[in-house]
Amino acid sequence: MTHFPAIFTIVATIILLPLSAFFIILGSFTLERCSMEHYLPIWMILLGTFLAIDRAFAWIFELNLYFFMKDNTKPVEELEMLNEWEFKKSGLELRVSNYTPVTVCGLLFFSFVGTYFLQNVWYIPESGDCNDLLILTSIIFCSIILLPCFLGLIFLFIYWIFLWLLSCFFA
């Protein structure tokens, strides 16, 4: 179980790093060509940059933990040194585990902003021209991020109502 964060970081990087490069390239090529919503390519570039920086920080945290474990063998004899080693290791592990919510919040933020920009494209389609790949990619990205969150909120709301009804009838 100690290798799970490293495996998660590797898999997430394999998925998100090419995606971030694609977002930056697509946003750069459509920067002047989207008169329908001129903020959409800028949003795409910022999203790709966020994903690349996010993966860089994730790798820095993982590599710090890896090199600590490689360079500092776990002491077995002296209790004080063992406690100090465990404290340093737990600090590095905490840094890695606390970084995932930053990624999730960033993805949610960019999805909400992207959905806001897509409203002009969706509701006023005659107002200009924009690359279909840019629009389709933005819609797919925002849907992949926001749809599970929305369904999760609905599930939690139904669960909360169920618990409330149980407490009313069996209290």
UniProtKB/TrEMBL annotation:
Keywords: Membrane, Transmembrane, Transmembrane helix. The chain crosses the membrane at residues 6-27, 39-61, 99-121, 133-162. It comes from the Eukaryota. PANTHER family: PROTEIN CBG12353-RELATED, SMALL INTEGRAL MEMBRANE PROTEIN. This is Protein CBG26430. It comes from Caenorhabditis briggsae.
